[in-house]
């Protein structure tokens, strides 16, 4: 959902342009103390053109090297202008899979005796638990790293450094320069990443306001160190004063960088020299603009850099307000003070966060897929969702009552449009009290859900973290101390959101989670014993209408004595994890489905995400594609945007094009604002309704492709919609392409139409392989742009030669009813007449695939006119045996110069038979009803 139609905002909107409202409510970098200071410092250092001398160096006597745990420990000393020094303990570890992790803390703050903050409710130490949320567990340590025993002196520069050589073939080296502190990571002898290349490394040490003047260097400013100048933040106590951390990171020879969502911006990130940096700070950014570096609902502080020979990743593990500055260009154009190691183009970045320890992981590998895998090993792969979640979701703010819900459901069936899930936004509740249902309108909600279940449908109901004051749930939260607390006393913090005055459940507190669990249990006020109820967690940034920048004040207090400032970006994750936990207890052996708006690194382990409150405009349809691609790069692939746009009324043409694009979003949901007209796909009338129905049916026929894609993602963190450079990392021309993509590894290349009135599109083909039009099988070949017809009823889709994928072509009302439907195999041959593919099948609902190996994995391959299926994983269970009755009903073989045309000899399970074929027609050879069972291997010889 939603724009906050809080009266203040609405009043602003009346008198100011939308642009004005935004600038008023959100801080610019200039206005945000730590951003202002870190940029100021970086500019001052750059302006000194190399004559700046960094105050940070490693104390050589402090170094402890342990080969056993692949780690170097020691202290960096920060020299202050008054002669004092600040001790900053660091650890550099080599992790399994050849990643380097650096953490830097501040000695004085980690010593409990040195507590200087008067308020004992705060922990004095820097927040060091972001990794608890961003990582799936403690990362394993490398077993093959070779660490120098002592420092080495570089003969040419005289600099001392420590060296770590790692990787199976010793292909990596990390050099840690002692003074000034710097890390350079080499891969196959080439420098790839340099930390503190430009000397922007900065740890704002603990000081009092009185000490500050003598402890600031001439390059620093005291702007906002002890008071927040931003008008809505006057109340921020800044109990720790300035405490930001920052460092610059140069990607050597890398021209393009991606990731660090969420921004409504291009896929390939832009230079920020003459703009604000990209900001990562979860906020309810209603009325947002496209092409903007403004923060949005979620944050994943992970950046990926791509060049021909390698891919690099930087994972910045910090949950506080964070910015990233990006400077592009060849060394010749860049500042002369910068250390230049190669003549190639490079991207120089500068990262800083408002609080917390410095904790980051550096990855380099040969391909983007390898970096996805490394990220997944650390942060966790996306969980395999229930199959129904990949069907179509119908939402609006709001469906009014039980009859309305059942009426919409029936209309889908009347128009033979499949759908799986209907959604209820906030109005289903009694006065926006979550866990209640509006009296008179939703009394029969349990029966309603059971009725939906009869056709395999599910219901998703919204539950937000703001809890209206003065009813059972908020009373419990206040009485039991389960809410976020005030900054200046131990009472529960109160603010405003949808219900008016509210409290916020503090899901960092294990007791809050236990309480949350109970609310979702069977047979309570909230629900009966139905098993098709799922949850939407919205407004979880958290959105606080009365708060600074529409969110929680930074100095309110969470469980464990942490300031909200330090944990902000992880709050939404703890909230949806609490809901996930509750739902996994409610449904003992069922994969919970949770949709979240706010997210953080790690959210992929338990939630899907959507991109928030879109406008019904062409530019928002367009920007939804790069945003979805960015999510694939940062390991949060289960994402989509509101089909049709959230605000406003799309034209029938825009709505139709949005469905044709939306069927490719991993998460496919139509949604609309309360003031928008009804726009379920059957409303527009002909020809639109039929075109939208065909698009939705195409999604359903390709569910085996999406589900197999999610299976792979759950193991290797592979994308669901795949940016072109993933399959063509050597082709620099395709790095920035953001309006087309492959679907998982099926070879389907799609370019949705996002232009009003278009009747054709130009599609870019990234390689020399043969491609075939999805519908006509026409051959299109040659690297470069090709024009494709794209009348309103046409979606530009090509099949890349070399792939085999599976479909289920029969119309059913929901995915559940398709469970035992037969398959159609589509084979697209490459130049050699070969192709490969795979299909993953399980019960689509439970964890039995994990617990009992209850699944079937089929590899398909064709070579030398022999098509083969090998069932090679899983084991025999009652479910996989049932799959014996699931047959392949059709095989479509598409190719350039097909060398068979008459017969198809089938063999399965020791039996042989001849299948009916249709000779070659327009590049395609069709086998009718080969009647092979999907759960055991077979071969088909073609002649
Ligand atoms: C809730 O009800 C479902 C369906 O009856 C049942 O499978 C599940 O075990 C119940 N959960 C609990 C916690 O009782
Ligand atoms: C529109 O689209 C993007 C992605 O599709 C989404 O994240 C964002 O919240 C939407 N924009 C607006 C103004 O609602
Ligand atoms: C497929 O079903 C048949 C017949 O029930 C059974 O013999 C076979 O083992 C099944 N295959 C798998 C992988 O379970």
TrEMBL record:
<feature type="domain" description="Glycoside hydrolase family 31 N-terminal">
    <location>
        <begin position="89"/>
        <end position="325"/>
    </location>
</feature>
<comment type="pathway">
    <text>Glycan metabolism; N-glycan metabolism.</text>
</comment>
<keyword id="KW-0256">Endoplasmic reticulum</keyword>
<keyword id="KW-0326">Glycosidase</keyword>
<dbReference type="GO" id="GO:0090599">
    <property type="term" value="F:alpha-glucosidase activity"/>
</dbReference>
<dbReference type="GO" id="GO:0005975">
    <property type="term" value="P:carbohydrate metabolic process"/>
</dbReference>
<dbReference type="GO" id="GO:0006491">
    <property type="term" value="P:N-glycan processing"/>
</dbReference>
<dbReference type="InterPro" id="IPR000322">
    <property type="entry name" value="Glyco_hydro_31_TIM"/>
</dbReference>
<dbReference type="GO" id="GO:0017177">
    <property type="term" value="C:glucosidase II complex"/>
</dbReference>
<feature type="domain" description="Glycosyl hydrolase family 31 C-terminal">
    <location>
        <begin position="718"/>
        <end position="804"/>
    </location>
</feature>
<dbReference type="InterPro" id="IPR025887">
    <property type="entry name" value="Glyco_hydro_31_N_dom"/>
</dbReference>
<dbReference type="InterPro" id="IPR011013">
    <property type="entry name" value="Gal_mutarotase_sf_dom"/>
</dbReference>
<keyword id="KW-0732">Signal</keyword>
<keyword id="KW-0378">Hydrolase</keyword>
<feature type="signal peptide">
    <location>
        <begin position="1"/>
        <end position="20"/>
    </location>
</feature>
<dbReference type="Pfam" id="PF21365">
    <property type="entry name" value="Glyco_hydro_31_3rd"/>
</dbReference>
<comment type="similarity">
    <text>Belongs to the glycosyl hydrolase 31 family.</text>
</comment>
<dbReference type="Pfam" id="PF01055">
    <property type="entry name" value="Glyco_hydro_31_2nd"/>
</dbReference>
<dbReference type="InterPro" id="IPR017853">
    <property type="entry name" value="GH"/>
</dbReference>
<feature type="domain" description="Glycoside hydrolase family 31 TIM barrel">
    <location>
        <begin position="382"/>
        <end position="708"/>
    </location>
</feature>
<protein>
    <recommendedName>
        <fullName>Glucosidase II subunit alpha</fullName>
    </recommendedName>
</protein>
<dbReference type="GO" id="GO:0030246">
    <property type="term" value="F:carbohydrate binding"/>
</dbReference>
<keyword id="KW-0325">Glycoprotein</keyword>
<dbReference type="Pfam" id="PF13802">
    <property type="entry name" value="Gal_mutarotas_2"/>
</dbReference>
<dbReference type="InterPro" id="IPR048395">
    <property type="entry name" value="Glyco_hydro_31_C"/>
</dbReference>
<dbReference type="InterPro" id="IPR013780">
    <property type="entry name" value="Glyco_hydro_b"/>
</dbReference>
């Amino acid at each position: 959902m939603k724009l906050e139609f809080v009266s203040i905002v609405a009043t602003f909107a009346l008198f100011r342009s939308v642009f004005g409202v935004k600038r008023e409510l959100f801080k610019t970098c200039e206005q945000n103390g730590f951003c202002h200071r870190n940029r100021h410092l970086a500019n001052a250092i750059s302006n000194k053109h190399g004559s700046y001398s960094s105050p940070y160096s490693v104390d050589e006597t402090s170094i402890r090297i342990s080969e056993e745990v692949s780690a170097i420990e020691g202290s960096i000393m920060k020299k202050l202008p008054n002669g004092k020094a600040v001790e900053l303990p660091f650890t550099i570890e080599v992790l399994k899979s050849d990643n380097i992790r650096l953490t830097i803390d501040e000695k004085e703050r980690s010593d409990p005796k040195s507590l200087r903050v008067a308020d004992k409710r705060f922990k004095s130490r820097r927040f060091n638990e972001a990794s608890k949320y961003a990582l799936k567990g403690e990362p394993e340590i490398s077993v093959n790293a070779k660490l120098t025993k002592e420092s080495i002196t570089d003969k040419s520069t005289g600099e001392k450094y420590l060296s770590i050589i790692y990787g199976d073939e010793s292909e990596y080296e990390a050099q840690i320069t002692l003074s000034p502190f710097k890390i350079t990571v080499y891969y196959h002898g080439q420098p790839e990443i340099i930390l503190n290349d430009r000397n922007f490394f900065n740890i704002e040490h603990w000081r009092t306001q009185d000490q500050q003047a003598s402890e600031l260097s001439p390059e620093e400013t005291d702007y906002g160190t002890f008071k927040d100048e931003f008008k809505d933040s006057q109340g921020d106590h800044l109990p720790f004063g300035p405490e930001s951390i920052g460092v610059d990171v140069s990607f050597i020879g890398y021209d393009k960088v991606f990731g660090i969502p969420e921004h409504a911006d291009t896929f390939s990130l832009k230079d920020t020299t003459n703009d604000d940096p990209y900001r990562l700070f979860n906020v309810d950014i209603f009325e947002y603009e496209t092409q903007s570096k403004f923060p949005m609902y979620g944050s994943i502080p992970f950046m990926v850099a791509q060049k021909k020979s390698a891919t690099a990743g930087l994972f910045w593990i910090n949950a506080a307000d964070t910015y990233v500055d990006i400077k592009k260009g060849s060394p010749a154009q860049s500042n002369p003070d910068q250390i230049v190691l190669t003549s190639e183009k490079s991207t120089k970045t500068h990262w800083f966060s408002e609080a917390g320890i410095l904790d980051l992981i550096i990855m380099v590998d040969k391909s983007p897929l390898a970096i996805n895998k490394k990220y997944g090993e650390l942060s966790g792969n996306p969980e395999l969702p229930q199959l129904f979640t990949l069907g179509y979701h119908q939402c609006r703010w709001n469906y009014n009552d039980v009859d309305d819900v059942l009426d919409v459901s029936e209309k889908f069936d009347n128009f033979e449009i499949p759908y799986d899930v209907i959604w209820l936004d906030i109005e289903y509740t009694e006065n926006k009290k979550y866990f209640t249902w509006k009296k008179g309108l939703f009394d029969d909600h349990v029966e309603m859900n059971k009725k939906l279940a009869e056709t395999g449908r599910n219901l998703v109901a919204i539950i937000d973290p703001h809890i209206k004051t003065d009813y059972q749930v908020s009373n419990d939260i206040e009485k039991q101390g389960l809410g976020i607390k005030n900054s200046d006393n131990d009472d529960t913090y109160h603010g405003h959101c949808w219900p008016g005055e509210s409290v916020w459940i503090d899901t960092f507190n294990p007791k809050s989670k236990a309480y949350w669990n109970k609310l979702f249990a069977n047979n309570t006020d909230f629900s009966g014993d139905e098993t098709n109820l799922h949850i939407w967690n919205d407004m979880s940034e958290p959105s606080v209408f009365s708060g600074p920048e529409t969110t929680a004040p930074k100095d309110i207090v969470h469980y464990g004595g942490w300031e909200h400032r330090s944990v902000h970006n992880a709050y939404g994750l703890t909230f949806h994890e609490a809901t996930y936990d509750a739902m996994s207890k409610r449904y003992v052996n069922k994969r919970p489905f949770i949709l979240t708006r706010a997210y953080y690194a790690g959210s992929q382990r338990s939630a899907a995400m959507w991109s928030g409150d879109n406008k019904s405009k062409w530019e928002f349809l367009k920007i939804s594609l790069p945003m979805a691609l960015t999510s694939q790069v940062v390991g949060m692939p289960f994402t989509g945007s509101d089909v049709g746009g959230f605000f406003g009324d799309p034209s029938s043409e825009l709505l139709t094009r949005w469905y044709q694009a939306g069927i490719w979003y991993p998460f496919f949901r139509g949604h609309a604002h309360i003031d928008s007209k009804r726009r379920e796909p059957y409303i527009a009338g002909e020809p639109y309704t039929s075109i939208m129905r065909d698009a939705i049916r195409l999604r359903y026929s390709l569910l085996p492709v999406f589900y197999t894609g999610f299976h792979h993602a759950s193991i290797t963190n592979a994308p669901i919609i795949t940016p072109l450079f993933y399959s063509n990392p050597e082709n620099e021309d395709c790095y920035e392409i953001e309006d087309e993509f492959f679907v998982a590894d099926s070879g389907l290349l799609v370019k949705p139409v996002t232009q009003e009135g278009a009747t054709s599109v130009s599609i870019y083909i990234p390689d020399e392989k043969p491609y075939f039009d999805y519908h006509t099988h026409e051959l299109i070949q040659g690297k470069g742009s090709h024009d494709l017809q794209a009348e309103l009823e046409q979606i530009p889709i090509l099949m890349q030669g070399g792939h085999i994928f599976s479909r289920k072509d029969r119309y059913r009302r929901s995915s559940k009813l398709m469970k035992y439907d037969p398959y159609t195999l589509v084979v697209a041959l490459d130049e050699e007449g070969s192709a490969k593919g795979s299909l993953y099948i399980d019960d689509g609902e439970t964890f039995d695939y994990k617990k009992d190996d209850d699944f079937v994995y089929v590899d398909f391959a064709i070579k030398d006119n022999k098509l083969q299926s090998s069932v090679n994983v899983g084991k025999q269970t009652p479910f996989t045996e049932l799959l014996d009755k699931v047959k392949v009903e059709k095989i479509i073989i598409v190719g350039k110069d097909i060398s068979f045309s008459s017969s198809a000899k089938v063999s399965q399970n020791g039996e042989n038979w001849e299948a009916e074929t249709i000779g070659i027609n327009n590049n395609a050879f069709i086998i009718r009803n080969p009647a092979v069972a999907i759960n055991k291997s077979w071969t088909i010889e073609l002649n």
